[in-house]
Design goal:
By secondary structure, this protein is of the alpha/beta class. The protein has five helices and four strands. The radius of gyration is 14 Å and the shape is globular.
């Protein structure tokens, strides 16, 4: 049974350690294979799963599968090395699909 209050984060140790201080469950992953396996296991018990962009961009087909479901919300976040823009590109694409125009980056 899913606990809708549970939040997890997947990524390299340096990027996710600070999340532990605010009560988020952290799951280190050294590569995208580990991240993919961890994500599949966590999807059954977590409502929100953050995943660092560097790993998220390596598993777009897996993220797309979860995007079609109500739970969990899988959200790419920047790693400790900074943002690769992957999360914002996905958000922009979703907004454009929903309303028919790019209102985020269309200047």
């Amino acid at each position: 049974m899913r606990n809708n209050n549970k939040i997890a984060v997947i990524g390299d140790k340096h990027s996710i350690l600070s999340f532990k201080a605010v009560g988020v469950d952290v799951f280190p992953a050294r590569n995208y294979f580990e991240a993919q396996d961890t994500l599949k296991k966590l999807a059954r018990n977590y409502a929100v799963i953050f995943i660092t962009e560097d790993i998220a961009q390596e598993i777009p087909e897996v993220l797309e599968r979860y995007k079609k479901r109500t739970y969990p919300a899988v959200i790419p976040i920047p790693s400790a090395q900074g943002s690769a823009g992957f999360g914002m590109k996905g958000l922009s694409k979703d907004v454009e699909k929903a309303i028919g125009a790019d209102i985020l980056f269309n200047s």
